[in-house]
Amino acid sequence: MAHAGSQPKGAVVLAGSTCCDGPSFGCCCDVLNFFETAENAKRYLREHPEINGAPITIPEAAEAGRVVFGDVLKGGLMPTTIDRGQVQKLTAAGGQLVEVLPREEYEEEHLPGAINVPLKELNRETWGAAGLPREGTVASEPSAGDAADPDTPTCSLQDDLPLVRARVRASGWDQCSVINDQHIVLGRLGRKALAADDRRSVEEAMSAGPSTIRPNVRLAELQSRLERQGLRSALVTTNEGRLIGVVRRDAAAP
């Protein structure tokens, strides 16, 4: 695992807690925020008197992590600081940036190409639902993400519908996902919409808000769901709605 170096250099971590008793896992650093300066962190503390904590420097936070979690992180699992150039090389090679900011802060501003898994929601399920690589025993069990065909036809709201129909038919598919520039699914063109011969727009012809499943759904579970509901396929997207692909029922069969 790698993380980029802190910018600006005066950035600090506010480590604190809003509870005073109970098990350690429920009280240890349930408030963990990054600030550009120590003064910003102190101002945040003044505005939130229910929080007990203090700003510490990035190196101090890293050392605290090593002291507290040293035994857990042995074996090369400690985060490695990398610079902007290394981040760009990793993303160019297919690496995925993951922002752990709260959703509101992520929506306000985030790194290009980064996806959001808020730190307080980060667990095995949310990691898998975001379409991120799985490890351990869970990785050996086939999932919807494993079976999803990423080469499913797509189009935008601005595309010419007759041309979309011709392209989809030529590809051998009977559906087309309508997506935006971020690859977020907006709708779906099904068999009837593709078979019609009219001059409607893509937006007028599509079914908005189609049902989707997350990539970490077990393939056996998906197969049962498709058979039970009489469906031929399922759209696989991340929590944010980003298209991963389509699983056809024959591909989901054991």
Outline of the structure:
The chain is α/β, with parallel strands linked by helices.
What does this structure look like?
It is built from twelve helices and 14 strands. The protein is of the alpha/beta class. It has three domains: 82 residues, no CATH class; 45 residues, no CATH class; 108 residues, CBS-domain. About 3% of the residues have low confidence.
What order do the helices and strands come in, and which of them pair?
Layout: E1 2-4, E2 12-17, H1 24-27, E3 31-35, H2 38-47, E4 52-57, H3 58-69, E5 80-82, H4 84-92, E6 98-99, H5 103-108, E7 115-116, H6 124-129, H7 144-147, E8 154-155, H8 161-171, E9 176-179, E10 185-189, H9 191-195, H10 202-205, E11 207-208, E12 212-213, H11 219-229, E13 233-237, E14 243-248, H12 249-252
Parallel strand pairs: 1-5, 6-7, 8-9, 12-13
Antiparallel strand pairs: 2-3, 2-4, 9-10, 10-11, 13-14
> How many independent structural domains?
3
- Percent of residues in helical segments? 25-40%
Strand content: 15-25%
Distance between the termini: 34 Å
Q: Name the CATH superfamily assignment of the largest domain.
A: CBS-domain
Number of strand elements:
14
Strand order of the largest sheet: 8-9-10-11
Radius of gyration: 23 Å
Low-confidence stretches: 21-27
CATH topology of the largest domain: CBS-domain
Q: Give the count of helical stretches.
A: 12
CATH architecture type of the largest domain: Roll
What is the string of SSEs from the N terminus onward? EEHEHEHEHEHEHHEHEEHHEEHEEH
Based on CA inertia axes, which overall geometry fits? elongated
Average predicted local confidence, pLDDT: 80
CATH class of the largest domain: Alpha Beta
